[in-house]
Amino acid sequence: MSLAVPNSPLKVEEIQGRGRGMVASQPLKAGEIILRDSPILLYSALPLSTPSLSSSFSASASGFCHHCFRTLPPSLQGDSSSPTVSCPSTPHHRFCSSSCLSNAQNSSHSFWVCQALSHLQANPQMLEQPLEHQVQARFLIAAYNLANINPSDFQILLSLQGSPDDSTIAAAQFLHPLVSSLYSLLRMNPQNGFSLELTSVLLAKDKLNAFGLMQPFTEDDDQRSVRAYGIYPYASFFNHDCLPNACRFDYVDSGPPGDSHNTDFIIRMIHDVPQGREICLSYFPVNENYSSRQKRLMEDYGFACNCDRCNVESNWSDNDSVVEDNAEDQEEGMEEDQYENETMVASDTDNNLQGDNNDFPHAYFFIKYMCDRTNCWGTLAPLPPQGDTTSNVMECNVCGNLKSDDDFDTDKGQDETPMED
Predict the structure, then answer these.
(1) DSSP string for 176-236
(2) DSSP assignment, residue 373?
(3) How many CB atoms lie within 10 A of CB 313?
(4) Beta strands 2-4; 393-396: pairing state
(5) Parallel, antiparallel, or unpaired for β 19-24 and 380-382?
(6) The model's pTM
(7) Distance between CA atoms of residues 180 and 141, nearest Å
């Protein structure tokens, strides 16, 4: 049984051994926008803290709007005196505009959310917890708030894949009493069967379906952190592939302040695919090596990947020694596990492009579709086609750079032009 995706050439189907996934309902072109998806829930990835407890809080917390998560302009960062961009109850919660604050007070930053976060930020027991638990607490507050303000979206959240495991049950056993105490303290009436079991289920949905909205890219930062997490009802159906045929673009810092669609996801095709083909994203940068990918997928999502790329790389021998032999030729200061696959690709590129596919049949993907900007590791996809004509300009989904596709194999990295906002 399949389910059509509104305003999209995709459908949701049950795929043997992979659960539900996205399938092309018609032939798709490189660069084609196949989905625009808005989040039903967003929450901050910041640790729970207060200015009085952490000298670094003000700088980190004031850098982004607490509703739409845009980067705040310098004139608003670190200044909690303006009533038009600060929450009246908690001035360290900052907003990019008065309209964003107004929208937040009716949704993501309701009175209950505001007060609940304030109480948690003053709770020494909570502040001693690892960041993962603090962010999970933020999610639970956002999720139970969603149950109050938009029950239909809350039911969509519950319909997504994900069942409690040992880790989510353990987290729920610790976090549920804290959230329950907030209901009692603030004299709020919980909705939708508030219980330990429901808290466990919610944490499981979050674990499998949350997407990270990353901090702005800079070449000096090889460890970009997450500014916020979001639950996207349709994007959550995309399965993973280590060589994806589509990739996600987000433009969080684009558009005027108060525009509620800046956190929308845009999914674009990397290359042409026929009707009936499953459309997959990569859940993390494609440069990660085989063992790292398998570890992340098992720990974070509970499955082992057997895509074509993994089937090839699982048969490689002496993987680490090959990387060490080639590492001397790479740019100084780069972490070895960040470029292991690129090193493999570089050693086999000529043979593979001439048709020798025995060692690494996917070298072409890395040469054409992986951004080579320092510390980026993003995926390149063509700009949306004009009519039936595929664009020859490729855009990176991480750093936003544009480059021509015409001479990717001879002048790689020479035609980069910053993308205009």
Answers:
(1) HHHHHHHHHHTT----S---HHHHHHHHHHHHHHEEEEEPPP-TT-SSPPEEEEEE-TTGG
(2) S
(3) 20
(4) unpaired
(5) unpaired
(6) 0.83
(7) 10
User: Three-state DSSP class for 371?
Assistant: coil
The 10s digit of each residue's pLDDT in 81-94 is 544 588 988 888 88
Can you tell me the distance from the alpha carbon of 214 to that of 228, in angstroms, rounded to the nearest whole number? Answer: 7
- Identify the helix (H) or strand (E) that includes residue 301: helix 290-301
Rg (Cα) of the chain, in Å, rounded? Answer: 23
What Å distances lie between residue 364 and 60, 131, 209, 280, 333, CA to CA? 40, 39, 30, 18, 26
Length of the chain: 421
Query: Which region, left, alpha or beta, applies to residue 398 given φ > 0 means left and ψ of -120 to 50 means alpha?
Result: alpha
- Give the model confidence (pLDDT) of 172-186 as tens digits: 999 999 888 887 766
**CA distance linking residue 70 with residue 96, whole number of Å:** 7
Residue 339 CA to residue 404 CA, distance in Å, equals 23
Report the alpha-carbon distance of residue 241 to residue 326 in Å, rounded.
26
Classify each residue of 327-348 as buried b or exposed e, where b means 16 or more C-beta atoms within 10 Å of its C-beta.
eeeeeeeeeeebbbbbbbbbbb
